[in-house]
Amino acid sequence: MIASVLRIRNFPFSLLFRLLHTRESLHPQSFNQCWHPWSKREGAAVCELFKGRNYSRSAMPKKHKTGKSAPKQPEQVPGPVSQDKGGLICIAIHAKPGSKQNAITDVSPEAVGVAIAAPPSEGEANAELVRYLSKVLELKKSEVTLDRGCRSREKLIKVSGSISPEEVLDRLKRAAAE
C-alpha cells in the first residue's frame, strides 16, 4: 500500500512523515477536502493507508495545571447596586416621573424604584433624579451622573464618590423605609 502512495504525483512526503511519526491531529478523512492538488482517488488511497488508526492527540491524557491560581474573589450578589471595572458604583434605577413627591418606592434585586416629582420632558425628571439621589446618598451632585437611559424609565446611575456599594445600598434601603 505504501508503494501506491509513493506513486502519487505531487505528494507532500513531509505530511506523510508527520502522520506516521508525530501523530498529528490530522484525520485521514480530511485528505478528501485537503488543500493539496490531489484528486479524490489519490486522497482515497492515502485514507486506505491510514484506515483504522487513531491519529488524534486526544489519546494522550491532559495534564492538570498545579500552579498557583489567583485568589478567588467573593461573588457579588446580583442586585441593583454593583461596581464596574473602573471602580465606579452603578445603580440600576426604575424611574417613575410625574409623582407628587420624590421618594424611593422599593429596592428590588433588579432595580431601585424612584418616584420623581418632575415631568418627563426636556430632561427635567433626569435632573431631579440626580439631585434627589445625591441628597439621599449624601454626596455632591457632581459625583452622581446619569450614564444610560436618558429617555427610558430604566436608567443607570454612576456614583464616583468615596463610598462603598454596601453603604450605597444601605442608604437607599433606609430612604425606602421612610
UniProtKB/TrEMBL annotation:
<feature type="region of interest" description="Disordered">
    <location>
        <begin position="58"/>
        <end position="83"/>
    </location>
</feature>
<dbReference type="GO" id="GO:0005737">
    <property type="term" value="C:cytoplasm"/>
</dbReference>
<comment type="similarity">
    <text>Belongs to the UPF0235 family.</text>
</comment>
<dbReference type="InterPro" id="IPR036591">
    <property type="entry name" value="YggU-like_sf"/>
</dbReference>
<dbReference type="Pfam" id="PF02594">
    <property type="entry name" value="DUF167"/>
</dbReference>
<dbReference type="InterPro" id="IPR003746">
    <property type="entry name" value="DUF167"/>
</dbReference>
<protein>
    <submittedName>
        <fullName>Uncharacterized protein</fullName>
    </submittedName>
</protein>
